[in-house]
Amino acid sequence: MRRASLIVCLLGLATGGCLKAPDDGKPQTETATEAPADQVAGSAGPLAAADQTIDWEAARAAKAAGPATDSAVTIQSVTGQGGLPQVPVLLPSGIVQAQDARPPALVATPDGYFATYQTPRYDAIVNGTKKAYSAGVSDGSARPDMAFTLGEASAQLSFSRFGADYLIEFECRQIDAAESCISEDEAKAFADSLFVSQTQ
Fold this sequence. Notes:
The protein is an alpha+beta fold. It has helices spanning 2-12, 37-41, 56-65, 184-192, and strands spanning 18-20, 28-30, 47-51, 74-77, 89-92, 105-109, 112-118, 122-129, 131-135, 146-151, 154-161, 164-172, 194-198. Strands 4-6-7-8-12-11-10 form a seven-stranded mixed sheet, covered by helices on one side.
């Protein structure tokens, strides 16, 4: 009887179940119970990306009221389509660059831009994007005004302006220093030096 039950079970594997002979001698099929889809995928939803509404009028007014600059910035494009970036371009003023620094260049991306400045203590990368990333919230309503974070030989400062999101990344040139190459007050002072360089 045990041998017959084993043969029936092996034959039932091809159909996704196992046939076993109960006490009455009639074979029955056991099928696996599938877990609900929400338990398999988990309860946390994916990050939602949404285009934010840019206040171009306010950006143009800020550019008109801002300082005049004679420093030309080369605009490159990674999309191959050219044109101005999709967000107001904020660039720093009064930055003392390192002696071996390359001329600053602005790179336009599909959703914004980034520009790199090399100073004696750190490299600063200014990023701007029209995308808002959040879990379940796409309007960005819960973001703080300015958020400063320290990393290993690095720091970041994020904020919003004109409806766009901006992130300044500071990468320390001396990675084994006892202290960070930039403090929160210095990072905010760098952000305060940003002016509107380009608009649509």
